[in-house]
UniProtKB/TrEMBL annotation:
SUPFAM superfamilies: Thioredoxin-like. Residues 12-100 form the GST N-terminal domain. This is Putative glutathione S-transferase. Keywords: Transferase. It comes from Rhizoctonia solani 123E. Pfam families: GST_C_7, GST_N_2. It comes from the Eukaryota. GO terms for molecular function: transferase activity. The keyword DNA damage does not apply. The lineage of its organism: Eukaryota, Fungi, Dikarya, Basidiomycota, Agaricomycotina.
Length: 253
């Protein structure tokens, strides 16, 4: 029995006062939309993630989100819980295969997608995240319990660079890393996506970082405006396609 609007996949996302924001959970949101799978969102405070997963009997090396609960084929059976955006995408491609459901990993690209997504996140993405993550601990962004938990458990990660303004060394490093990754993508002959014309998991990873920048920065989004002009608007063109997929949601409200 596949997920239906009446019995959708449950997608566990991280709670905030401003809707969804996590770059990691965003990848799963796009995966579900892309595969046209109905899902219901359950938001969990940072402080409740570990207790929630343990309560559900989930075994994981790290208690983190995203996580999905896929309904059992047996009406009386328990759902299948899957943690981690990459593992979720693998599971959904296997459980809901082509041609009925669009693929997240084009044939023969799973290993390459894993390498490429991690490469972008750890090199280009992390440069930006190091300056943006501390903003998530500001008053009014997360729920108060989640904010207190973040401040208590992520002190080192919340230390921001001394200067993240446009023109700073931080900004120069970010431009260098994003340009480096973009030049690799220029090896494709055409198309805005990592594989050219077909959207796939690594695009979701890049989209997650861009979405995070836009949502966390807020205001006039000066950082995103600068990034959107890099490399002749490459990242803006990709974001246009990602945003279309975000809005074409299969979430059951």
């Amino acid at each position: 029995m596949a997920a239906t609007k009446e019995n959708p996949i449950v997608f566990y996302d991280i709670l905030s006062e401003h809707g969804y924001w996590s770059p990691n959970t965003y990848k799963t949101r796009l995966t579900l939309n892309h595969k046209r799978l109905p899902y219901r969102v359950e938001y969990v405070s940072f402080s409740d993630i570990t207790p929630k997963l343990k309560e559900l009997g989930v075994r994981a090396m790290h208690y983190t989100l995203p996580m999905i609960a896929d309904p059992s084929p047996d009406p009386n059976g328990k759902p299948t819980y899957v943690v981690d955006s990459f593992d979720i995408a693998l599971y959904l491609d296997k459980t809901y295969p082509a041609p009925k459901y669009p693929v997240v990993f084009p044939p023969g690209t799973r290993a390459v997608q894993k390498i490429t997504a991690d490469l972008f996140t750890n090199k280009a993405g992390y440069v930006i995240l190091s300056g943006m993550v501390p903003l998530t601990a500001r008053d009014g962004f997360l729920d108060e319990r989640g904010r207190e938990y973040l401040l208590k458990t992520r002190k080192e990660f919340l230390k921001a660079p001394a200067d993240t303004s446009i023109g700073s060394k931080f900004w120069g490093d970010a431009h260098e890393k994003w340009s480096w990754f973009g030049e690799i993508l220029d090896l494709n002959e055409e198309g805005p996506f990592v594989t050219g014309k077909q959207i796939s998991f690594t695009d979701f990873a890049i989209g997650g970082i861009i979405s995070f920048i836009r949502r966390v920065e807020g205001g006039d989004m000066q950082m995103w405006k600068a990034i959107s002009e890099w490399q002749g608007g490459r990242w803006a063109r990709l974001w246009t396609e990602i945003e279309k997929l975000e809005k074409d949601s299969t979430e059951v409200v």
